[in-house]
Amino acid sequence: MSFGRRTGLPDVEPMTPNLLVGTGRVTRAAVPGLCAELETLLYDPGDPDGAVRDPDAGVDCDVGGVVHVDLALVEAIARLGLVARRAGGRRLRLRNVPPELQSLLDLVGLADVVDVGCGTGTGAGTAEGGG
Predict the structure, then answer these.
(1) Alpha-carbon distance 115 to 33, whole Å?
(2) What is the per-residue pLDDT across 6-28, written as a single tens digit (0 to 9) for each?
(3) Which helix (H) or strand (E) covers residue 15, if one does?
């Protein structure tokens, strides 16, 4: 018997994902700023056509630092998911999801729209919702 050699680690993405870190309380007023920050991570500012930077890289959002789970946070996640999809059909992956957020995402039907994981990592950008 012979076995083929694997390239890379199983279940590990070859490109470093874009990471947006949410901390504090996310308010509805903060949602457009969060979307703008994600667009800054995803699109090449030097390209006049607005080309997507690193099209194979994932889009992760660490919500472990969010202190209040409510519908404003769910709205932010839904809109960030749309921004990610518009940038080449990427799915938004959530990291460090508290159980109450998982329940709320299930309740409103967004658990099937975003990928919910439990991984950890350090952020390339920080998004804070004031309020």
Answers:
(1) 22
(2) 444 444 444 556 777 888 899 99
(3) none
